Amino acid sequence: MASQTETLEFQAETRQLLQLVIHSIYSNKDIFLRELISNASDALDKLRLESLTDSDLAVDTADLHITLEADREARTLTVRDNGIGMTRDEVVDLIGTIAKSGTASLLAKIKEAKDAEAAQSLIGQFGVGFYSAFMVADKVTLRTRRAGTEQGTAWESDGEGSYTVSEAEGLPVGTSVTLHLKPADGEDGMGDYLAGWKIRQIVKQYSDFIRWPIRMAAEAGEAGEDGTRPEPETLNSMKALWARPRSEVTEAEYHEFYQQISHDWQPPAQTIHMKAEGTFEYEALLFLPAHAPFDLFARDTKRGVQLYVKRVFIMDDCEALMPNYLRFVKGVVDAHDLSLNVSREILQHDRQITAVRRRLVKKVLGAVKDLRTKDAEGYAKLWEQFGRVLKEGLIEDRDNTDALLELVSADSTHDPEQPTTLRGYVERMKEGQDCIYYLTGENRAMVENSPHMEAVTAKGYEVLILTDPVDEVWTDQVPAFDGHRFQSIAKGQVDLGEEAEGSEEAKAEKAKREEDYAALLGWLGTTLAEQVKEVRLSSRLTTSAACLVGDANDLTPTLEKMYRAMGQELPPVKRILELNPTHPLVTALYEAHRAEPGAPALVEIAELVHGSALLAEGGDLPDPARFTRLLTDRLARTL
Q1: Among the four given CATH numbers 3.40.190.10, 3.30.2310.20, 3.30.565.10, 3.30.365.10, the one describing domain 3-224
Q2: Of 343, 427, 474, 621, which is most buried by a Cβ count within 10 Å?
Q3: Which of 390, 403, 393 is nearest to 363 (CA)?
Q4: Does residue 272 carry a pLDDT above 90?
């Protein structure tokens, strides 16, 4: 029989804080069971440890477990463990945490917080998981006896003005928490929490990997055909693969777990199993999928890493643990030193989580690099699926630019069948070549047939063929690889070594040609002033009459389209028209202009030259109808 009951009043500010905890921290009421199971698991851990360190502690640790008992008639749900238990003083100190000193100052800080994120951060530092029970219960009863003692303690509260603490006789070692659920009807109806399916669902989602068995006892009055009460049902798998040494886990177990968390029935391309010890302990089990999910580039796609704390599920899609460009990575990170009620906002500003993220990223990139080294075919398949998204990291993650550049695989003019790495490109560079030449475009055929390729490939230089939209951005932001600058052959002046290689006679001939063409170039620049910023002779053309190039710092036409598609208003970017002085059309235009400067027919030819250069690179004509009319009229006059 209980005796020496003591009724304690919550202080006014404590009642306010309790209401804030119950109604503000948790948006999902199911969390209450996760919290209580986690507390019970901690109690079992403590008993196991104390039994190993205290030889005088006479306890039975052969069957440590957690039991859930639902009583529909009494409308109670009990979470029971045979763990370490608590003394009366520990009950007041631990279960009564919310009534400890400092509550008033904490509440003042929360009220002073400028936004909800700051308030939640403060609450997250306060141990209040037990009190989540009041989200679903109008009264909570706790009964406990600590291992090594004979006296039990009972604690009870309705979460409002007071709580009671009393002695309780005849209790087993451990703790039971009984929730007297709120009415089943009405807006806050709690009937589902007595249903077996609901209890199984919550345990499976949040507590499946708790190391101790979580058993659900048969309901009172439930009996089998022989009249005996059914054995308790174990609800959790307890198979936290990440907590086991890698040597003890089979590939089949890894694949089964990967399928469970990813819903992908193909085996992963790579498995990463790691454990970190020290000031911040955690385990991680990550997977690189073999193929891209259908929503990889959807705006609302989620990242695939789940966060656990001591095997207790906390959240899906943990953005703080993995950057956006690695959103395809699936897996679990289990941290030992976080609070269960940690929020996404808290994680984003947590230094330890930031350090974990850095290490996870390096581990993932290292795994991709290992795959490239050990399995070229497997790497090629992985890059085909995820190369485009990995290259986003060259824009987002400056800390890992070098590591990402080592992974880049791209088509090139070196081998039409086999992509190259940047390292491979550099190893094949011609003597005296300083730049890594590349050209972007919609597809390989368009890039290969671009006029910009002519002189570069004619002189034997290799050119990277970049056809992903993201290539337009990262090549503009990443300056170099291994000391070699990236140079678009469609932007700026491309130095192919003519000055160094040419004779004095060739240099003199080039200077005279530029002098001779100065009048034509000036006239074309004026005539096409609305379309181009400059007209000049080209050193990059061998067979085409003309091409359009950008200044070194100009946006490419494709990038300009991308920004406009995203709703960003940009001033039109004028480009440079380059002419091939050895092409018959250009030499004929030169002679015609010298004979009759500014003739009307020459204006039409100037428009056709510009339009042809625009079409050759896959651009859009500003007035297709006019271009077509000029072209057909000109063709008709030649017949």
Answers
A1: 3.30.565.10
A2: 474
A3: 403
A4: yes
The stretches of 233-311 forming alpha helices (DSSP H) are: 251-262
Q: What is the mean pLDDT of residues 106-114?
A: 57
Closest alpha carbon to 202 in 212, 188, 216: 216
Among the residue ranges 1-15, 168-182, 290-304, 441-455, the one predicted with the least confidence is 1-15
Is CATH 1.20.1600.10 the classification given to domain 503-638? no
Q: Is the pLDDT of residue 226 over 70?
A: no
Q: Is the dihedral of CA 537, 539, 542, 548 positive or negative?
A: negative
Amino acid at site 517: Y
For the cut 70, the answer to whether the pLDDT of residue 55 exceeds it is yes
Distance CA 618, CA 604 (A): 21
Mean residue pLDDT of the chain comes to 85
Query: Tell me: domain 241-376, CATH 3.30.230.80, correct?
Result: yes
Q: Residue 480, class by beta-carbon neighbours within 10 Å (0-12 exposed, 13-18 middle, 19+ buried)?
A: middle
CA distances 18 to 96, 165, 254, Å, are 11, 18, 43
Domain extents in the chain: 3-224, 241-376, 409-488, 503-638
Contacts of 617 (CB under 8 A, 6+ apart): 441, 446, 450, 451, 452, 490, 547, 548, 557
CB atoms near residue 126 (< 10 Å): 19
pLDDT band at 107 (very low <50, low <70, confident <90, very high): low
Cα dihedral: 454, 458, 459, 464 (round 10): 60
What pLDDT score was predicted for residue 127? 45
Q: Is 432 exposed, middle or buried (0-12, 13-18, 19+ CB in 10 A)?
A: exposed
At position 252, the amino acid (one-letter code) is A
Checking if the pLDDT of 503 tops 80, the result is no
Q: How far apart are CA 116 and CA 33, in angstroms?
A: 25
Q: What is the distance between the alpha carbons of residues 142 and 76, in angstroms, rounded to a whole number?
A: 13
- Tokens linked to 455: 């002189």
Cα(392)–Cα(474) distance, integer angstroms: 7
For the domain spanning 409-488, the CATH number is 3.40.50.11260
Which of 295, 268, 271 minimizes the C-alpha distance to 285?
271
Those residues whose C-beta lies under 8 Å from the C-beta of residue 361, and which sit 6 or more positions away, are 322, 323, 326, 397, 400
Provide the CA 149 distance to its chain's centre, in angstroms. 50
Q: Using CA atoms, how far apart are residues 89 and 102, in angstroms rounded to an integer?
A: 19
Give the mean model confidence (pLDDT) for residues 368-377: 92
- pTM of this prediction? 0.74
Question: Would 241-376 and 503-638 be classified into the same CATH topology?
Answer: no
Closest of 112, 161, 140 to residue 11, by C-alpha: 161
Q: What is the rounded distance in angstroms from the CA atom of residue 420 to the CA atom of residue 205?
A: 44
Measured distance CA(190)–CA(137) in Å, rounded? 8
Angle between helix 31-53 and helix 196-206 axes, rounded to 10 deg: 60
pLDDT recorded at residue 345? 77
Compute the Cα dihedral for 429, 434, 436, 438 and give only its sign. negative
| pLDDT single digits (tens) 311-350 | 888 888 899 999 999 999 999 999 988 877 777 777 888 8
